[in-house]
């Protein structure tokens, strides 16, 4: 319906008080300016200017048109500046394992906001296997997930290991300490979802010691695991850092024998370089700095 050039003409006429003055300032013939405005009024079926003494002024409709169009001009200038000056802007689709949301994520995003205020983040909290698939399907740009589940071909940077232990309600379970694999196998356990590596590792660890069917419940929400442990539903496997952020949960780490100790969780941040090369490197640097 109208072009950027039309709006620039309207703005020049308004700022300089008339068609002749706009012609003098822009170097465009007054007749050319008049024809452009006349054709625009015909297309839009409106009157943009009205006479005011020896000059012209915007009509009410003309003011509305210019006000709204000024926003478009400002957006155009911003986009051109970002593209030509290398400014990082736009939306980053970030997938994060829940463990990381309570540890490095807040610090990482705060760093990125201070360095690149025009970036916007859409954050998805999911299991590592789902995030790996979403990265390959171009549904996520950058993911923080269990290292062993990073997709082939991804640019991967390891993050510091996360300690992982057994937790129990102070009120609901009376276990010997250090607890053995046999002690643990006879109790209900709440852990990561069934599809995850930590869940499978726990089942493999305890199955030889279970006299009956092993009861390992899975949840994608670590907060849910924590609350279930607190209420005495079972004993839980949780990252130490998660429990540390919930001191009011009133659960404690259970001392276990050496063969029952859980391995650290190995996380990594990764992206596909052909899709998110520059921003992927920037977010990776922030993640590593936040983990220190």
Automatic annotation (TrEMBL):
Q: SUPFAM superfamilies per the record?
A: Periplasmic binding protein-like II, Winged helix' DNA-binding domain
**Pfam families, sorted:** HTH_1, LysR_substrate
What InterPro entries does the database record attribute to this sequence? LTTR, LysR_HTH_N, LysR_subst-bd, WH-like_DNA-bd_sf, WH_DNA-bd_sf
Which residue numbers delimit the HTH lysR-type domain?
Answer: 2-59
Superkingdom of source? Bacteria
Transcription regulation keyword on record: yes
Keyword list, A-Z: DNA-binding, Transcription, Transcription regulation
The record's similarity note reads: Belongs to the LysR transcriptional regulatory family.
Put simply, this protein is called LysR family transcriptional regulator
Annotated source species: Thioclava kandeliae
